[in-house]
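hiii, so i know i said id send this last week but things got crazy w the move. better late than never?? heres the sequnce for the chain we talked about at the cafe, plus the structure i predicted for it. fair warning i was half asleep when i ran it
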Amino acid sequence: MAKTKLTFQCQSCGYVSPKWLGKCPDCDSWNSFIEERVQPRGLRSGSVQDPIPLDKVEIGEGFRYSTGISELDRVLGGGIVPGSVILVGGDPGIGKSTLLLQAMHGLSNGQDRSVLYVSAEESLAQIKVRAKRLGIESSKIELLSETSLENVINIAKKIEPSAIVIDSIQTVYTDALPSAPGSVGQIRECSSGLMAFSKKTGVPSFLIGHVTKEGALAGPRVLEHIVDTVLYFEGDRGHTYRVLRSVKNRFGSTNEIGVFEMAEKGLEEVNNPSALFLSERHENISGSSVTASVEGTRPVLVEVQSLVSPTSFGMPRRTALGIDQNRVSLLIAVCEKIGGVPLGTMDVFVNVVGGLRIVEPSADLCVLMTILSSLKEKNIKDDMIVFGEVGLTGEVRSVANAEMRINEAKKIGFRRVLIPEGNRKNIKGITDIEIIGVRDIHEAIETVFNDRS
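okay and structure toks below
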């Protein structure tokens, strides 16, 4: 009879070692190894299927179906794909359970079958209280308080739901492993078991995942590799709006975002995020401007603020929120070397208002202009938006989807737009808004601060 194998696994990355180690050689985490007992298994065998020619594969109508929440459908790529496994992560209390409970309510209304909501953390009474607050009363939402994966799958086979929610995957365990719930082995086996069930039956599964102090999903990275889609629910609990971002999607774009507002009766969709992010913007102040960012197929206007002040220490501070700090340091260096603006004795703080994170370089020119605006104490015109990529030699480079950004600014009510000259040459047919093209940061500075018409 085969003996049980004893190994040690890193709880951060899943690295396996035959002995305990203080530091993981793969991810450099300290004290992350936990003992795992691996039961030997026989060779896996299954039914052999004949290959099917590509032109013979049929896709039925309604390949995707809606959750009833258009913002969630947008991030998923147009709706839920049957048999897919979707992982939703976010900070505690951000609204993950609320979002999925509302999604299951909308999904059950459009399906003949019920949905199965498995809570491994909360009692059924707690879920009922949340549903009552959200105004959800439905007989098609089946609630189950269970932590055993085998029991969950058996019940799912019995009731044949149209979707399954596991809240959360870190608290579910399988009897095939003796380790505690939340360990690397348990998370891997439970997610693999749910993936196999979803692919075989066509029932989509939603997994709610915990996050670490650094904001990453708890557990091994293999969890994100197993699932089809990974969604992050972002936002500050001190603000009412939330951003749902896709970081992995096998069935759609990974650049889409969904914007929600946390109201008294749950999450409400925000169909015009630009108006939301600019709703509390003050006019005629220095260090503030608006840029246009494209998230997937949607242009979003956001306010960028900068504060430049003399440093009180020997080393000036560089702080950036909502944008890559290394990118801000690069722009400060361009200001000093190419623009001739001394910032070596100044603290520079940059913030993207609203909690939205900009990952594309189109905000470079706006960030640079707001830094100079704060330093010079001269405000940028309130009716102007600024976007463009800035190179290390001070040139302003073209960005993608310029016309889409300009049309969004025009719809909100802006009358001027400062863009790269390369984009301006290719724009045709846009009227009622002044389009100003610049080749480098010198032209941009001259246009913004010296032309006061």
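btw The longest strand covers residues 298-310. thought thatd interest u
miss u guys!!
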